[in-house]
From TrEMBL:
<dbReference type="GO" id="GO:0008757">
    <property type="term" value="F:S-adenosylmethionine-dependent methyltransferase activity"/>
</dbReference>
<feature type="domain" description="Methyltransferase type 11">
    <location>
        <begin position="46"/>
        <end position="138"/>
    </location>
</feature>
<dbReference type="InterPro" id="IPR029063">
    <property type="entry name" value="SAM-dependent_MTases_sf"/>
</dbReference>
<protein>
    <submittedName>
        <fullName>Zgc:162780</fullName>
    </submittedName>
</protein>
<dbReference type="Pfam" id="PF08241">
    <property type="entry name" value="Methyltransf_11"/>
</dbReference>
<dbReference type="InterPro" id="IPR051052">
    <property type="entry name" value="Diverse_substrate_MTase"/>
</dbReference>
<dbReference type="InterPro" id="IPR013216">
    <property type="entry name" value="Methyltransf_11"/>
</dbReference>
Length: 179
């Protein structure tokens, strides 16, 4: 189960003001990778551990529908208050129990939140909800992130080490389904 921090409204307000969001350049890299698969779609993106929605907002221009999920009602309330975009909605949900049907999501992102999750359970859940040819993007500010997921572990960790301080791991459904 994900760690439950950042629960109160005062902290959520500070999070909205000071949380570092990914750059538009980094989001564009994620989108380029996602679009590089000719069978990809832009119907539904899910931003897991979205906090107050700064990263969720960056996805909105590129998808028909974007859903930010978080375990903190206060964080989600802050997102609803500050992000008034018609194709964005928010759902309270742990990262390891996403409220989406199997194979229904085109892009799953987690931006500076992966380190709070039960990583193995989250990766299984991302695998479950992603469409064939879907994409998972893990954006995290760390140099020591290790990923473990079946036969993909070595490849995932190579990508993480190659990118450096801002770790960006992209997994396609093909990699996950090989497990």
């Amino acid at each position: 189960m994900a760690v439950r921090l950042f629960e109160d409204k005062e902290h959520a307000n500070l999070y909205w003001k000071y949380r570092i969001s990914p750059s538009e350049e980094l989001i564009e890299k994620v989108l380029q990778f996602h679009r590089s698969n000719k069978n990809s779609a832009n119907d539904l993106a899910v931003d897991v551990g979205c906090g107050s929605g700064q990263g969720t907002l960056l996805l909105a221009p590129h998808f028909t529908r974007v859903v930010g999920t978080d375990i903190s009602p206060a964080q989600l309330e802050m997102g609803r208050k500050h992000v008034n975009v018609s194709n964005i909605s928010y759902r309270e949900s742990p990262a390891e129990e996403l409220p989406f049907e199997d194979g229904s999501v085109d892009l799953v992102t987690t931006m500076s939140a992966f380190h709070w999750f039960d990583s193995s359970r989250f990766l299984q859940e991302a695998h479950r909800v992603l469409k064939p040819h879907g994409c998972l993007a893990i954006l995290n500010y760390t140099m020591n992130m290790e990923l473990s997921y079946g036969d993909c572990s070595e490849t995932l960790n190579h990508i993480c080490k190659e990118v450096g301080i801002i770790t960006v791991a992209f997994l396609t459904f093909q990699c996950l389904s090989a497990v």
